[in-house]
Amino acid sequence: MFRIEFMQRALYLAERGKGFVSPNPMVGCVIVKDGRIIGEGWHKRFGEAHAEVNAVLDAESRGFSLENSDVYVSLEPCSHFGKTPPCAKLLIDKKVKRVFISCLDPNPLVAGNGVNMLKNVGVEVSYGFLEDKAKRLNRFFFYHIKHKLPYVILKLATTLDGFIADKNGSSKWITNENSRREVHRIRSEVDAVVVGSGTVMADNPSLTVRLVKGRNPKKVVVDFNGKLEGDYNVFDKNCFLITLKGALSEEKKGFYAQKGVKLIEIEKPDVELMLKELYKNNIASLLVEGGSGIAGMFVESGLVNEIMLFVAPKFLGEGKRAFNLSKSFTIEDPLKFDANDGFLRFVLRS
Ligand SMILES: NC(=O)c1ccc[n+]([C@@H]2O[C@H](COP(=O)([O-])OP(=O)(O)OC[C@H]3O[C@@H](n4cnc5c(N)ncnc54)[C@H](OP(=O)(O)O)[C@@H]3O)[C@@H](O)[C@H]2O)c1
Predict the structure, then answer these.
(1) Of the candidates 210, 180, 213, which has an alpha carbon nearest to the alpha carbon of residue 20?
(2) Please, what are the domains in the chain?
(3) 3-class SS at 238?
(4) Active-site residue flag, 52
(5) Residue 324: its pLDDT value, please?
(6) If you compute the radius of gyration of the chain from its CA atoms, what whole number of angstroms results?
(7) Which of 112, 132, 280, 286 is the most buried (most CB within 10 A)?
(8) Is the CB of 183 under 6 A from ligand 1?
(9) C-alpha distances out from residue 76 to 72, 105, 207, 292, Å
(10) Residue 102 Cβ contacting ligand 1 at under 6 Å
(11) What is the pLDDT of residue 261?
(12) Which one is catalytic: 52, 76, 189, 289?
């Protein structure tokens, strides 16, 4: 009999891989026999064992046989030889009785083949349990597999009158520590964080994770015309610099090479071009952190999946507005935000 709490446990375990398995999905697996858990596992790091392998090892290391067991797994077991052998085959070899799957794998290399492989040898398979939760958990994965582009979250901290910095360009401490902690948490979950040259010059951010536990994302600086001069905190071997072709002098290129910064040169200032280049560099999720030029161009591209606005109960009267768009619109025909398989969230914070 299917029991929802075991699938909940599999999803809970899957989440432990957050930030470490991209561009792979987070997956958790629980093996049950006689109504109790005999083994569990999750995909811990990209390139390492899949959740099912870890769960099988866990059960066997405690002396359990998997024969006639039930397997709860948050994503369809794989059917192809990738970095590891197919998990569907492993479960067949171990003679499991039933496999309960939360959602099917959208990866064309799997997409139903894992289910078929199991069914063909008589394993009972059913799927669709807590599917919305599983898809939301792996929304970066579902999106990048389908679109071959990174999933984009755009975050800005604004005042109630819609400014992201005061008239002197200062944006420090618009929001409070809780909001900043939330931003650091998201940094630790995405593959890379993007800022524009204006933000680098105004704030000299380091874009690292300091307020929560977690790993640092890669950093991406957009400086189409090579305006940045000299050194900034972001420039190190974890940083990509996006410029237009021919924008940088040989001297600047030498400086960036020596810092370990990876240059990405594109033909024109276009968000889709940038995203394609970043995707080629294994960036499957992005947090865009402004400023207003970058935020404007990203929303105009229609390639933003999620907007997080931290709105502080403060007013500035004048300053830097949140989105610098290339043209204006009317209320009859505004530029609308279409979450593009994603979500819209507003966070009201002081
Ligand atoms: N409160 C917050 O959440 C927050 C977050 C980040 C930054 N900020 C504040 O935002 C300010 C920086 O914003 P910013 O807009 O000056 O710089 P920015 O967005 O950081 O950088 C501008 C980049 O966007 C490009 N761009 C494309 N279209 C643009 C347009 N229509 N207008 C301007 N740039 C465009 C520029 O191209 P080129 O290379 O051709 O110039 C440049 O690469 C700072 O005061 C910073 O403190 C606030």
Answers:
(1) 213
(2) 4-138 (3.40.140.10), 148-348 (3.40.430.10)
(3) coil
(4) yes
(5) 95
(6) 23
(7) 286
(8) no
(9) 10, 5, 35, 41
(10) no
(11) 98
(12) 52
Q: Report the C-alpha gap between 314 and 160 in whole angstroms.
A: 6
**What pLDDT is attached to residue 348?**
64
pLDDT of res. 344: 66
Pick out the chain residues at pLDDT < 50.
none
Quote the tokens at residue 245: 């072709």
- Residues linked to residue 151 through DSSP beta bridges, in sequence order: 285
Phi-psi region of 112 (alpha: psi -120 to 50; beta: other; left: phi over 0): left
Residue bearing tokens 């709860």 = 72
Tell me the DSSP string of 276-316: HHHHHTT--EEEE---HHHHHHHHHHT---EEEEEEES---
CB atoms within 10 A of CB 3: 15
Q: Shortest CA distance to 154 belongs to which of 349, 3, 347, 350?
A: 347
Q: How far is the CA of 324 from the centre of ligand 1 (A)?
A: 8
Residues ≥6 apart with Cβ < 8 Å to 263: 240, 241, 243, 248, 253, 256, 257
| Chain centroid to CA 133 | 16
Is cis: bond before 35, omega within 30 of 0? no
- What integer pLDDT is reported at residue 106 of this predicted model? 86
Burial 20-48 (b: 16+ CB within 10 A, else e): bbbbbbbbbbbbbbeeebbbbbbbeeeee
C-alpha 323 – ligand 1 centre gap (Å) = 9
SS3 29: strand
Residues in CB range of 242: below 8 A, 6 or more apart = 220, 221, 222, 223, 224, 264, 265, 266, 274, 277
